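Re-running DUF1700 domain-containing protein to confirm reproducibility after the cluster update. Everything else is unchanged from the original entry.
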Amino acid sequence: MTRQIYLHRLKEALEGLPREEQESAMRYCEEYFDEAGEDQFEQAVHDLGSPEEFAKGIRSSYNSRMNADQKEHKNWPWPLILILALVACPIWVPLAAVIVILLIIFGFLLCLPFMLILLLLFLFFGLAASLLITAVRMIFVSWASAGLALGGMLICAALFLVCLCGLITLIKKVVPWAKVKVQEGYEWIQERRSQA
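Result of re-run:
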C-alpha cells in the first residue's frame, strides 16, 4: 500500500465527521508518515493500523468528546439560575399568585355543583325531619295540621331522594372524567421528565 492509497482510504473512512476533525486526522497521518520517512513507511502503517481502524479510533475519540461536552451542558448552573430567579421576582411572584388564585377559583367552580347538591340534601333532610316531628306533635292537636305537616315531610323526603340521585349521577359522571384527566396529566409530566 502506498502513502496516497492509505490517505485516500482514510479520507473515505472519515466521511461523516466534521471537516475540522477530518483535516486534523489527515494532517496527523501526513506528519507521521513524513517523520517516519520512505524507508519506515511500512512500520508507520503497521503502527497506525489500517485506514479503517485508524478512522474508527478517530470516530470513537470524537464521540467520547461529544458525550463529555453534552454532559457538561446538562449540568445546570444553579447559582446563575438562582440569581435570575431573584432578579425576575417582580415578574414571576405576581404571576404565580395569579395562577394559584385561578386554580383555587377553578377548583371552587368545579366543586360548586357538589356543594349545592349537598346543601340541598341537608336542607331537605332537615325540613323533612322537622316536619315529621311537627306532624307527630300535631296529631293530638289537629288532624288537619298533622296531615299537612306529614304531606310536607313526604315532599321534602322525595326532594331529598331526587337530590341524592342527582349527586350519585354527578359522581358517576365526574369521577371517570377526573381519572382520565389525572392520568393524562401524569403521562404529560412523565413525558417531560423523559425529554429532560
